[in-house]
Amino acid sequence: MPANTNNIERSNSLVETIVESHRHRPGALLPVLHEIQASFGFIPKDAVTPIADGLNLSRAEVHGVISFYHDFRYVPGPSVRVCMGEACQSMGSAALLESAKALFGDGVEPVYCVGNCACAPNVEIAHAYHGRMSPAKLTSLLAREVAA
Amino acid sequence: MTISVYVPRDSGALAVGAEAVANAILAQAAERGIRVELIRNGSRGLYWLEPLVEVQTPQGRVAYGPVDRDAVPGLFAADFLRGGAHPLCQGLTEEIPYLKAQQRLTFRRVGLTDPLSLDDYRAHEGYRGLARALEMTPAEIVAAVTESGLRGRGGAAFPTGIKWNTVLEAPGDIKYIVCNADEGDSGTFSDRMVMEGDPYLLIEGMTLAGLAVGAEQGYLYLRSEYPHAEAILDEAIARAEAAGYLGDDLRGSGKRFHLEVRRAAGAYVCGEETALLESLEGKRGQVRAKPPLPAIQGLFQRPTVVNNVISLASVPAILDKGPAFYRDYGMGRSRGTLPIQLTGNIRRGGLVELGFGVSLKELLYDYGGGTASGRPIKAVQVGGPLGAYLPADQFDIPLDYEAFIAAQGTVGHGGIVVFDDTADMAHMARHAMAFCAVESCGKCTPCRIGSTRGVELLDRIIAERDKGADVAQVALLRELCDTLLNGSLCALGGMTPFPVLSALDHFPADFGLVAETAHA
Ligand SMILES: Cc1cc2nc3c(=O)[nH]c(=O)nc-3n(C[C@H](O)[C@H](O)[C@H](O)COP(=O)(O)O)c2cc1C
Ligand code: SF4
């Protein structure tokens, strides 16, 4: 389908532009991956070859880095993360994780500390943190999220 | 007359609604035709009162908190812009006992100033350390840091001056300063508060490190969970460059220092300094064997200072006020102050900066006010996920590196997580093993595979505990901990036994053990 080919071409050239804009920097791979992930919401599998070519790395090296870090993924990440650091667990985040999973299923993952441990427990919804959460507050926040 | 109102832009305050409060204040002021100047400060660290709104009055700043959006019309009705009485009024901020009793050296500007205002920074003693340092030789700067007794605040407590001296004396004309802002420990946020609330302090500290060892490039390795800190740091770096505090000619001295923020990618182990360097080089964050020390062969094989945010942020005051001023705080070989973070199930959670030596008891009860739930404290974990769980009969321990080592614990980055008597310590021990399994860099077999074995053992112990402990499984768990302690390249594998064994030793009943057989 021509529309699809167009999309692929466009995304390939976006990947190349991103690689080009960072390639002069020492240790450019992480900044490149972050920008690609921010642009696409994930790392397209097809991006591995142009990244490797652009940065003079092997495809195995690029894949190795993508798979090592929790942030980088080939599919879109979760929309909800529940903090399961010890501080949030002391305030009942295990129950929050359960209620979030009941509502959002696979779109929910744990995160190990968002750095707001004096206002535990914390959740992250669509990249925004919410502290002093309770299952009831979480349910109403998530309902708003679904409606939006 | 315009009235100054402060509403924090700290991400902890934002997570409990500070943005909505700021907007509501602006809307109400507009509706009433009142001119207010809204300043987005850092957090004072009184987190149980966040969002904490402050109003400048002739008597000083008056605090209101915790304020939510719906309380704002009532605050206007109570004339809070003149410090009017209201149930949320906390009086003069500086007189709040929690804050007043602290010894804020590193945090003295956090929450007070506009984080991005260079004028504010300079008006509150900022860049005085740099002015001193530009008249000193590198060896003199290093000597001042050594004399201050400052030890690294990232966890290992290594003397900062000695590290800097190694880099200063290492041959080579290219050297680096790396700031470890990975702050991965649960129960810690002091790095974040500095970066969001007083970014020039960290920039000044890194610049001083550069001058001390002859490095012209700095990298700030920042965890990806801190997007607000990243935005503030990027803006502060741009402004510092424009004002000649960074760049090719620091304040007309002809000396250079460049600084760049690099975003991490969500791996706890990348807080370990050699894994961090691998990550900065664009690789998998695998721990390097030492030697060579990063101080000799660090980033891109060059001599490199790797220091925690708080370590670096402590240096400007040391240079400005002299090493003796700093060294006079503290106890034993733990000199200066520690920004302590009170977190978890605690009534008054927040940031408490004090000289070393304060006891856990004072922190937990006098400052913290006991648990948030109102139940008794069962245990605290000090020093992050690799720190020991301590029971109530050990709360007399002073915050001191050596005292904690003697209690088989660690002060770490100064985080204290509180648990009430509903906590299940066997479950927390399992969590420690599971965390190690998820975050292992994969280099050592005990850490990579043993941690998963540990999870399985604990699952079995937990499943059987109601029928009495499975003593054989507990013995296997202890053996496994021994292997981890002795067979790990870094502290992730090497210290995971701390939370596990301390839970087992201090809370045997949670494992189905009666106290007498805990050491089976
Ligand atoms: C698994 C692991 C995680 C660590 N995480 C951090 C961290 O997030 N921040 C930090 O400053 N140090 C961390 N450290 C300690 C660093 O390896 C290193 O000691 C520190 O950055 C040195 O700086 P300092 O001397 O100023 O403390 C970690 C160590 C280990 C073993
Ligand atoms: S102990 Fe674990 S995290 Fe540390 S080097 Fe070994 S495998 Fe890596």
Would you give an account of this structure?
The complex is a heterodimer of chains A (148) and B (520). With 148 residues, chain A is α+β, with helices and mostly antiparallel strands. Chain A folds into two domains: 2-68; 80-147, Glutaredoxin (3-Layer(aba) Sandwich). Chain A is built from seven helices and four strands. Chain A has a four-stranded mixed sheet, covered by helices on one side. In chain A, helix 1 runs antiparallel to helix 2. The longest helix of chain A is centred in the first third of the chain and has 21 residues, at 2-22. The two termini of chain A are 32 Å apart. The mean pLDDT of chain A is 92. With 520 residues, chain B is of the alpha/beta class. Chain B has 21 helices and 16 strands. Chain B has helices spanning 11-14, 18-31, 72-77, 97-100, 118-123, 128-133, 138-148, 160-169, 190-197, 199-213, 227-242, 273-280, 309-321, 323-327, 360-367, 401-406, 425-439, 445-464, 471-486, 491-495, 497-506, and strands at residues 3-6, 36-39, 53-57, 60-64, 89-92, 176-181, 217-222, 258-263, 304-308, 330-331, 334-335, 337-344, 350-355, 377-382, 389-391, 415-420. In chain B, strands 2-1-3-4-5 form a five-stranded mixed sheet, covered by helices on one side. Chain B has a five-stranded mixed sheet with strand order 13-12-16-14-15. In chain B, strand 7, helix 11 (227-242) and strand 8 form a beta-alpha-beta unit. In chain B, helix 9 packs across helix 10 and helix 10 (199-213) crosses helix 13 (309-321). At the A-B interface, helix 2, helix 4, helix 5 and strand 4 of A face helix 1, strand 12, strand 16 and helix 17 of B.
